[in-house]
Amino acid sequence: DAKTTQPTSMDCAEGRAANLPCNHSTISGNEYVYWYRQIHSQGPQYIIHGLKNNETNEMASLIITEDRKSSTLILPHATLRDTAVYYCIVRPHFGNEKLTFGTGTRLTIIP
Amino acid sequence: EADIYQTPRYLVIGTGKKITLECSQTMGHDKMYWYQQDPGMELHLIHYSYGVNSTEKGDLSSESTVSRIRTEHFPLTLESARPSHTSQYLCASSGNLTPLHFGNGTRLTVT
User: Fold this and answer.
1) B24-52 burial string, b = 16+ CB within 10 Å, else e?
2) A58, A88, A101, B94: most buried, per Cβ within 10 A?
3) Contacts of A84 in chain B (CB under 8 A)
4) What confidence score (pLDDT) does residue A103 get?
5) DSSP E strands: which ranges in chain B?
6) Inter-residue contact B8 to B106 (CB < 8 Å)
7) What is the pLDDT of residues A84-111, one digit of tens each?
8) Is A43 at the interface with chain B, CB within 8 A?
9) SS3 label, residue A21
10) Residue A102 C-alpha, separation from nearest chain B C-alpha, in angstroms
């Protein structure tokens, strides 16, 4: 019963921007949007998170729509090492809540 | 940069054996989680804990048990391993204002 929906797979050419969408139409006011990625079978790695404003760090940018019902993770210049499964989840910063991951998006960077 | 440690990394064991998968974190996080993941499949939450002496079952039914006697330690035990328990087990932790940190996982094979 993940709270997010993502496309199953996407391809992106190396050097191009990869835009990964996520729908979270039932997000509540105190829930943040988090993005993680999992390369091969390693433990998932944190990428970025945000509440309502757009965010940018050294790895990616996060664009959240004004109604907060969807977001897009942007990898500005995709490399082959960005090939991974990308997960979008929503969670509150405070309080106790079990964290459920959906199926994620399998991103393949094409040389 | 790993502050959450899982041992062993790989384990091959015979049917009927009792096993304990170790997970420790040095970040003082209150919340800890166990996920089970088959190759190429999604992460399934099997156990979580909000703090010492707190344990809850996750979304996926599991024959394993957990304990949380100390903040930093969240071991998972299988009393009698079966081939159906063959999978990867990922441990994670988080605080109120921090993202999830994952360990590198234990890949369990029951023969």
Assistant:
1) bbeeebbbbbbbbbeeeebbbbbbbbbee
2) A88
3) none
4) 86
5) 4-7, 10-13, 19-25, 31-37, 44-49, 56-57, 65-66, 76-78, 87-94, 101-102, 106-110
6) yes
7) 999 999 987 666 667 788 889 999 999 9
8) yes
9) strand
10) 7
